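FAQ

Q: What does a record look like?
A: Structure on top, sequence underneath. For example:
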């Protein structure tokens, strides 16, 4: 059984590496069709097979991770570009990204350390994670990478994809979302497995990954896919750890609070659907804007204009109106943030309670509408007028339209 499991894990890593190499690491699992992700390539996870768990449950939460203090000064406004782990492993690509920061107003880099594959992109030196077998060393010396960025005055953010996790599901299928029909691990439209968001053990595993990122020197951890699945045969999903019948919103809210308490004193941020800024419910995925308030230092709605449906605020083609779409979305989010007064805040321990700020993701890619300098610049203009807490810019290729964000350099 152990040899078979190692074969499947090796095959998974090789498949993911080949696909990512062909795209030069373009992480395409950031958001969802309609208001989020660009289409994923199922070939990257086609080799995943589910094995019987061999790791005792208790071993995934011990021993304790020691996080050293980090005194790197954070910018007043974080303005980040995004790098896949494959880009972070390439000297030439990092030199390019460093040059982008030198020539523009960008001052931070978001680096994938656990992407849509679920694989952790470096050697954690954590015996618990290493024993699970969910590492794939793409970044050979992550400590040196972080130190290099700090030496250049760059704020460092580690991106962790949470519940979409084929690698962990292959090792611990008992913790994954199940199919009601077959009892096997449920897969979404891209044939990707998800972990049960109700499972505290899944919570602790991702917190351990985040703690490890902080121990390597990262200044902030950015959590993505911190939600329930949004595509696939949703009526076929079964969540084995939600025996109490809690709503998806209640589960996510509990996780938000648990994250804050577990990572007390650390800077954490959450990626949320762009529509969360205007939605009056949890959209069926458990994300409700007010629930994130007080639990995350930064809330990062993915307000990509290309991903809003026709008819949003009256526009047939929202992507053609980047300023208007983002200005409206962030204005609405800021109104909700400024008026947030609720007894629910009492559930957040006073010592961990923080003042959340909006720091949106914007797009530097074309999807149905061509984006260039003006479109990038207009998105930033909208954010500056609405919240002015900085921004993060997403390019799947990690190539950037520098002319769109050079104004304040």
């Amino acid at each position: 059984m152990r040899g078979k499991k190692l074969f499947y894990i090796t095959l998974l890593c090789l498949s993911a590496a080949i696909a990512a190499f062909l795209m030069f690491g373009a992480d395409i699992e950031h958001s969802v069709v309609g208001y989020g992700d660009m289409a994923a390539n199922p070939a990257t996870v086609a080799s995943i097979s589910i094995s019987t768990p061999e790791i005792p449950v208790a071993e995934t939460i011990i021993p304790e991770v020691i996080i050293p203090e980090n005194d790197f000064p954070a910018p007043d406004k974080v303005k980040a570009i995004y790098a896949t782990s494959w880009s972070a492993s390439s000297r030439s690509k990092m030199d390019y990204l460093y040059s982008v920061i030198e020539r523009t107003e960008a001052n931070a880099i978001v680096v994938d350390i656990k992407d849509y594959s679920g694989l952790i992109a470096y050697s954690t030196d954590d015996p618990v994670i290493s024993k699970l077998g969910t590492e794939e060393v793409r970044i050979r010396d992550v400590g040196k990478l972080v130190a290099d960025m700090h030496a250049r005055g760059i704020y460092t953010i580690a991106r962790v994809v949470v519940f979409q996790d084929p690698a962990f599901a292959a090792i611990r299928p008992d913790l994954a979302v199940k199919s009601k029909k077959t009892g096997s691990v449920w897969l979404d439209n891209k044939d990707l497995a998800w972990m049960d968001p109700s499972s505290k053990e899944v919570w602790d595993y991702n917190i351990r990954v985040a703690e490890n990122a902080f121990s390597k020197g990262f200044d902030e951890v950015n959590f993505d896919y911190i939600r329930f699945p949004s595509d696939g045969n949703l009526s076929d999903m079964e969540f084995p750890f939600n025996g109490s019948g809690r709503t998806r919103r209640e589960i996510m809210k509990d996780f938000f609070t648990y994250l804050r308490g577990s990572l007390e004193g650390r800077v954490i941020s959450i990626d949320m659907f762009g529509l969360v800024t205007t939605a009056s419910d949890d959209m069926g995925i458990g994300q409700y804007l007010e629930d994130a308030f007080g639990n995350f230092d930064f809330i990062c709605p993915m307000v990509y204009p290309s991903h809003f449906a026709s008819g949003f605020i009256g526009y047939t083609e929202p992507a053609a109106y980047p300023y208007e779409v983002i200005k409206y979305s962030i204005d609405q989010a800021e109104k909700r943030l400024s008026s947030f007064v609720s007894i629910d805040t009492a559930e957040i321990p006073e010592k961990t309670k923080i003042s959340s700020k909006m720091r949106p993701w914007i797009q530097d890619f074309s999807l149905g509408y061509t984006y260039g300098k003006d479109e990038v610049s207009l998105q930033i203009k909208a954010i500056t007028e609405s919240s002015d807490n900085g921004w993060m810019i997403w390019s799947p290729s990690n190539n950037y339209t520098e002319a769109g964000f050079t104004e304040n350099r």
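Q: Is there anything notable about this one?
A: Residues 110 and 157 are 5 Å apart (CA to CA).
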